[in-house]
Amino acid sequence: MGLLDIFKRKETPQLRKRTYASARTGRLFGDFVQSGNSADSELRFTLEVMRNRSRELIRDNEFARRYINLLKTNVIGDHGFHLQVKARNDDGSLDSYGNTVIENSFKRWGQLGNPTSDGRMSWFDCQRLAIESLARDGEVFIKKVTSSRYKDGFSIQFIEADLVDEKKNETLTNGNEIRMGIELDKFHKPVAYHILSAHPGDKYYHSAKSRKHTRVPADEIIHVYMPNRTHQTRGEPFMVSAMSALKMLGAYREAEVIAARISASKMGVITTPTGDDFVGEGLENEHTPVIDVEPGSFYQLNAGQKLDPIDFDHPNSSYPEFESAMLRGISSGLNVSYAALSNDLSSVNYSSIRQGALDERQFIVPIHQRNTNFELKVTSDFPYPVSLVSMMWEGNYSPRFYRRA
């Protein structure tokens, strides 16, 4: 350092700024907790809770039930999916006779009592149960069953998500890994499903000791779910982003209804100068005098007594706006329009409701495609629809007349 360097102007240190504002820290972001866990690590200890809460909301919350009904209406419809075969002859023309035989056979197989191993549902019922289970539980497990006791030798069996034990996690000696009841190979491909012999919540009919795991090969199971991250083994309920808001809104609505009921009852308190002169018609909690008032009745108070009415001022005038604001956020989390979820058409016009319907279709179409694929995948190990497979078994139709479209 030279003598003249003393007189040089010192450079002012520049403040450093983070590249991303979302990565800031400090007191304003102290409650912004983040997680670096994998998808399976996050689901392992929360899947059962989310699934049970989703079921509780659908049972008791009218907007959650409305969401499920919207899915069944828009995805499955009034008649469900049907098999349409477009096999062609060697000259390129449609094989009308062969196509009709296959479609009619599939239609007969789909009648009530045939598709499921328990004989309780039709093919249409299966589709509605599948989409409801997919949205409510986040996944659907279906076992393919082949036996001569079933119509055309084939049926399906719905397996509730609880039976695929998410608490079963271990590494096997052959290198495979069991994650939340699903056995995976080193490429994360399902190899088998470990299914409980009895429902873990069926405590009134089966003891915990009687429940055992059965290993079912993956080619016998159809596992339908919509993964959100890479290597996600199990599905999460569709309402997971809106559950908290739905629960809070439900509790708020209940409190408002109770407050409005109390306000409509027009209760009051009778006061006296000494507090000991009012006798009443009975006692509440063995020491508080009370009097029951009938509608249209007037009572004469004794000298010195005064009636002070209690007015709770409910329902609150701002309640509709608050509920609408909450439902708009919930409908965004569920990816449906506010008008469809709330059945409130008071503030919509043709353009807005049409745009909402278009946005819903962007969400509904992938589900429809997945279910269409699901329908065509119920084929055992054959590249033909179930009805064609069964007819080949029975010798009613030859596969040479059928070509995959």
Write up this protein.
The chain is an alpha+beta fold and 405 residues long. The chain folds into two domains: 39-241 and 367-401, no CATH class; 243-363, no CATH class. The protein has helices spanning 39-44, 47-60, 62-76, 96-109, 123-137, 243-264, 319-334, 338-342, 350-377, 386-394, and strands at 139-146, 154-159, 170-171, 177-179, 182-184, 190-196, 213-217, 221-225, 268-271, 282-284, 288-290, 306-309. Helix 4 (96-109) packs across helix 10 (386-394). It is extended. It starts with 38 loop residues before the first helix and ends in an 11-residue tail after the last helix. Mean pLDDT is 79; it is low at 365-405.
State the gist of this model.
The protein has ten helices and twelve strands. Helix content is 36%, strand content 13%.
**How large a portion of the residues is in β-strands, by DSSP E?**
5-15%
Count of individual domains: 2
- Rg, alpha carbons: 32 Å
The biggest beta sheet is recorded as: 5 strands, antiparallel
What distance lies between the first and last C-alpha atoms, to the nearest angstrom?
84 Å
Q: Low-confidence parts lasting 5 or more residues at pLDDT below 50?
A: 365-405
Choose one word for the global shape. extended
The total count of helices amounts to: 10
Mean pLDDT: 79
Question: What is the oligomeric state here?
Answer: single chain
Secondary-structure element sequence? HHHHHEEEEEEEEHEEEEHHHH
Structural class computed from helices and strand pairing: alpha+beta
The count of DSSP E runs of length 2 or more, i.e. the number of strands, is 12
- The spatial strand order of the largest sheet comes to 3-4-5-6-7
Helix percent reads 25-40%
